[in-house]
Design a protein that fits this description.
The protein is mainly alpha-helical and 324 residues long. Helix content is 74%, strand content 3%. The protein contains ten helices and three strands; from the N terminus they run E-H-H-E-H-H-H-E-H-H-H-H-H. The chain has helices at residues 24-51, 58-85, 94-127, 132-135, 138-164, 181-186, 193-227, 231-259, 265-292, 295-314; strands at residues 11-14, 91-93, 173-174. The protein has a three-stranded mixed β-sheet with strand order 2-1-3. The longest helix is centred in the middle third of the chain and has 35 residues, at 193-227. The protein is globular. The mean pLDDT is 85.
Length: 324
């Protein structure tokens, strides 16, 4: 819908993934299943770590926060997308679009540095095991977990303000399933130079700086692993890091394709498909990656289930009042 210069924009229309009505019920079921898997997997991981005292270590402390971030940023986009797939009215208010854009950017930036903190934790655990408890003290862990939230929500607010400071008069139709930066920039009829360059600089800096921390950590880890003489020791070291590297590869690979390039009609269309991977697929797979490849998590799950079964069996039967 084209807008005149004096029109006050009150809402946006989200086009979603497709404009073909026959595909929308199928997409609704598919993304509902993925969203429920994300909720159950990440909530389950958080509860399991909370219930099993043997998982109260820095590695699982950071994994709890990663699960929380995955859960939150998927929930930022998924409910609106699912609603639009079964609704004729595919609108979102101007304020709602701002909040969604802000939270999405903030939580993505938070995840960058949470993954970097997890890589640093694995580096200290494998390369400096004797000093691990000192270098990864409770205060250090809290600081490393707090920084991603503070930085992510600060930079996210700055980026969202730059986006919504633009004048939207070309149209109110967003070619995406959530209020993403690139398609919003395409709607602006004001000068987007500052916003485009701020987005590219922020995306490039945050993607590369957090990835450099991860790559350096794992280069040092690999060097340390190759020095281990025992095959069992090498296997155990690789298994603790392999799941993290799988999650990093999936997450960063899709995001580099999404943000480190200027928005055009072609890149905006491609970004919708790419966004599905880091919005739905990656958060749904992370709990599986960290549990199926992790012996500690599988053993903790068995202990929690066994404890619940024993507790239920030990409970006395419900008393029956025979005098009534």
């Amino acid at each position: 819908m084209p807008l005149s210069n004096d029109t006050t924009l009150r809402e946006f229309i989200l086009l979603g993934l497709t404009d073909r009505p026959e595909l929308q019920p199928l997409l609704f079921v598919l993304f509902l299943v993925l969203y429920l898997a994300t909720l159950l997997g990440n909530l389950g991981m958080m509860v399991l770590i909370r219930l099993d005292s043997r998982l109260h270590t820095p590695m699982y402390f950071f994994l709890t926060h990663l699960s929380l971030v995955d859960l939150c940023y998927t929930s930022t986009a998924a409910p609106q997308m699912l609603t639009n797939l079964v609704s004729q009215k595919k609108t979102i208010s101007f304020a709602g679009c701002f909040v969604q854009c802000y939270l999405f950017i903030a939580l993505l930036l938070t995840e960058f540095y949470m993954l970097a903190a997890m890589a640093y934790d694995r580096y200290v655990a494998i390369c400096n095991p004797l000093h691990y408890s000192v270098k990864m003290s409770r205060w250090v862990c809290i600081s490393l977990a707090t920084f991603p939230y503070v930085y992510g929500f600060s930079d996210g607010l700055f980026q969202a303000i730059l986006t919504f400071h633009l004048t939207f008069c070309r149209s109110n139709i967003i070619n995406h399933f959530y209020c993403a930066d690139p398609p919003l920039i395409k709607l602006s009829c004001s000068d987007t130079y500052v916003k485009e360059h701020a987005m590219l600089i922020s995306a490039g800096f945050n993607l590369s700086s957090s990835l450099i921390i991860i790559l350096i950590s794992y280069a040092l880890i690999l060097t340390a692993i190759l020095r281990i003489k025992s095959a069992e020791g090498r296997r155990k070291a690789f298994s603790t890091c392999g799941s993290h590297m799988m999650a990093v590869t999936l997450f960063y690979g899709t995001l580099f394709c999404m943000y480190v390039r200027p928005p055009t009609d072609t890149t905006v269309e491609e970004s919708k498909i790419i966004a599905v991977f880091y919005t739905f697929v990656s958060p749904a797979l992370n709990p599986l990656i960290y549990s199926l490849r992790n012996k500690d998590v599988k053993q903790a799950l068995k202990r929690v289930l066994r404890r619940n079964i024993v507790t239920k069996m030990a409970m006395p039967p419900f008393p029956v009042n025979c005098n009534s």
